[in-house]
């Protein structure tokens, strides 16, 4: 058994999709590092989920990988190249969908390609080809019937599908998702779980997914990375002992429930909580919009 699952050593010759070594970051004026000693290797095509107490730096780490934040020291590489800003090879989806309200669903999905044509980065032929991709994504996301609707006419779940389709438009090798389903009701979340698992299989995208929901983390991830606060660091990496293709009934399997219990206990230990009740209160307070 690999003593440190944060480092996948089965195939050391192969270039990892994402490689983080000794990463450290401190926000200006803060007394403590928001991230310290982060070591992580994520292989191409993996679906890795992150959980941990509020404020342990999950979003900051995701934003560093996305190039939206700079780290102070250590290495952070995607496809072997140091990250020094955002790029089309890394799509991002956040909890709040931030769609353009004056554009239709279809235009929202195509927006970045159209923008590049105006800035001269793409030829119109390339944009034509991209329209085919936009249509394919509309179908994949079940948005065909609402392609000409405005975002305000859609439910939260539909809007988040548009945001995911937009993030996939540039065929990113990496999809970074920060609490993407956090604002959705339980039933819509379940539908979105099946959808994102399907998209992951189909597009073979590497997914890094931050959530407060331990069940969601286990159901979607092949590994669950548990972070701890003050300073923000990786505490434990759990391998998920389930077949790659998940089915909703697996949520009731003994190995699923045992892992959920272990992760919740560990979160409780890293936050210094004494009771489940305290932990639940803390988790639900941090999950509130
Ligand atoms: N731009 C910023 N400037 C200063 N401090 C920040 C900034 N962004 C986040 N922080 C602080 O860094 C810490 C980690 O925040 P971050 O959002 O990364 O944690 P998180 O684990 O994603 O939290 P949550 O689960 O509550 O979303 C928090 O204490 C937060 O207040």
TrEMBL record:
Pfam families: ABC_tran (PF00005). Coiled coil: none annotated. SMART domains: AAA. SUPFAM superfamilies: P-loop containing nucleoside triphosphate hydrolases. One of its GO terms (molecular function) is ATP binding. Keywords: ATP-binding, Cell membrane, Membrane, Nucleotide-binding, Transport. Residues 18-250 form the ABC transporter domain. Belongs to the ABC transporter superfamily. This is ABC transporter-like protein. It comes from Sphaerotilus natans subsp. natans DSM 6575.
């Amino acid at each position: 058994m690999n003593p440190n699952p944060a480092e996948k050593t089965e195939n050391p010759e192969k270039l990892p999709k994402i490689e983080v070594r000794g990463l450290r970051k401190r926000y200006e004026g803060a007394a403590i590092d928001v991230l310290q000693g982060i070591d992580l290797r994520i292989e191409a095509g993996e679906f890795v989920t992150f959980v941990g107490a509020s404020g342990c730096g999950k979003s900051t780490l995701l934003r560093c990988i996305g190039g939206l934040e700079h780290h102070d020291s250590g290495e952070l590489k995607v496809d072997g190249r140091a990250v020094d800003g955002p790029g089309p090879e890394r799509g991002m989806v956040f909890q709040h969908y931030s769609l353009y309200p004056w554009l239709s669903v279809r235009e929202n999905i195509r927006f970045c390609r159209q923008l590049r044509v105006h800035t001269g980065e793409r030829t119109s032929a390339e944009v034509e080809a991209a329209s085919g991709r936009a249509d394919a994504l509309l179908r994949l996301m079940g948005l065909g019937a609402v392609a000409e609707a405005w975002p305000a006419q859609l439910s939260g779940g539909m809007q988040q599908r548009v945001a995911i389709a937009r993030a996939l438009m540039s065929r990113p090798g990496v999809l970074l998702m920060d609490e993407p389903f956090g604002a959705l009701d339980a039933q819509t979340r379940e539908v979105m779980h099946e959808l994102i698992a399907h998209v992951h299989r189909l597009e073979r995208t590497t997914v890094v997914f931050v959530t407060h929901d331990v069940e969601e983390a286990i159901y979607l991830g092949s590994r669950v990375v548990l972070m701890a606060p003050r300073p923000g660091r990786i505490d434990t990496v759990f391998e998920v002992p389930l077949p790659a293709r998940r089915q909703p009934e697996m949520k009731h399997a003994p190995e699923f429930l045992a892992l959920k219990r272990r992760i919740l206990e560990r979160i409780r230990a890293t936050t210094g909580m004494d009771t489940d009740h305290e932990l639940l209160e803390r988790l639900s307070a941090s999950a509130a919009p």
